[in-house]
Amino acid sequence: MYKVEFVELDNKIPFKKFIYSLDKREVAKIFASIDKFVDLKNNNLPIKENLSKKLEDGIFEIRVSLPNKIVRNLYYYVSDEKIIITHGFIKKSQKTPSKEIDKAKGLRKQYNERMSYE
What is the pLDDT of the chain when averaged over all its residues? Predict the structure, then answer.
């Protein structure tokens, strides 16, 4: 069974900071998308690219379209059952910015070292 964790470093959770910048309906839609993604994974069902897409170097994104913005939540896998969400951001360009992917890689490296993953 897949479980979701959030990167936590120095008592800070980057995803939580992002979520607090949004209104309640937007947050609800983001968590509904995460739940749907995990449910599909746990039931071994196909996941369409409009919900999740591989970016690079083991970093993926959960895609959420809100009425006036597009949100991306970057994540990676640890073992076969953990999905670790690094952070979220509002997408302003067609392509996911490389600085956001680099941020996810940096958070992954720090978090994995702290948690003794990999």
Answer: 94
Strand partners of residue 74: 61, 87
CA dist 88 and 29 (Å) reads 13
Structural domain span for residue 98: 3-115
CATH number at residue 105: 3.30.2310.20
Radius of gyration of the chain (CA): 14
Residue 92: pLDDT band with limits 50, 70, 90 = confident
Question: In total, how many domains does the chain have?
Answer: 1
* Cα–Cα dist 61/71, whole Å: 10
The whole-model pTM stands at 0.94
CA 42 from centre of chain: 17
Quote the pLDDT of residue 116.
Answer: 86
